[in-house]
Each structure stands twice: as structure tokens, then as C-alpha cells.
Write a structure and sequence with these properties.
mainly alpha, 91% helix
Length: 120
């Protein structure tokens, strides 16, 4: 998903850079597709936020269990803590990419809409 978002953002940036070459119909057609993609990315961002929060809560539970449970069992939970921490870190980085990309898409969308309004 990260490669897809980066590639799509590069495509949109290129389109915005060359907006002066486009007529109003092309801009409106592009913005319609762009807004659809933004909604898809927003949905993806929401799902990853929920997954990240779930794994973070599970991590807190597992860390708590390490300190509360008796010795033979807490070793298993200690291993789980490390595994869960790796997953949480990965999810946080992915969510960070999604969040910043969607924020940039908002700004790019605003510049396209502004250009369409100028041509009205």
C-alpha cells in the first residue's frame, strides 16, 4: 500500500504542476477521480488506526501480564511482548505514512479546486 500511495501522490503532484496546460473539463474529471481515491485512502487510514490501537492495547495487556503472572507463564508473555512490540511499531510507521499522505492529498485537492474556481 505504501508504494501505491507514493506512486499515486507523485502522479497527482505532476498533474498539479502541469495544471495550466489542462482545460476545465480535464480538471473536473481528474478531481472527481481524486476525491474518490481520497475517500478510499481515508477508509484505509481509519482501518489502520483501529488495528494500531487494538495492537497497542494488546501490547499493554501483555506487558501487564508479564509482571502479574507466575514465572513459567510470564516467559511466554515476555516473548509475546517483543513480538507484539514489533507489530505495533510497524503499524505505527504505516499509519504515519497513511496519515501524512492523506493530509497532503487534501492540500493538493484544494489547489486543484482553486484552479477550477479561477476558470469558472
Amino acid at each position: 500500500m505504501g508504494k501505491y500511495i507514493k506512486a499515486y501522490l507523485n502522479e497527482v503532484r505532476e498533474f498539479v504542476k502541469n495544471m495550466s496546460d489542462k482545460d476545465r473539463a480535464e480538471l473536473e474529471e481528474f478531481i472527481a477521480e481524486f476525491e474518490t481515491k481520497i475517500s478510499y485512502f481515508q477508509h484505509e487510514r481509519l482501518i489502520h488506526l483501529l488495528v494500531t490501537l487494538t495492537f497497542a492495547l494488546m501490547e499493554i495487556f501483555v506487558v501487564f501480564a508479564v509482571f502479574v503472572l507466575p514465572d513459567p507463564v510470564n516467559l511466554i508473555f515476555a516473548v509475546m511482548t517483543v513480538i507484539m512490540l514489533c507489530l505495533v511499531i510497524g503499524y505505527v510507521f504505516h499509519y504515519y505514512l497513511l496519515e501524512n499522505s492523506v493530509q497532503e492529498m487534501y492540500h493538493l485537492r484544494d489547489s486543484i479546486v482553486e484552479e477550477i474556481k479561477k476558470r469558472a
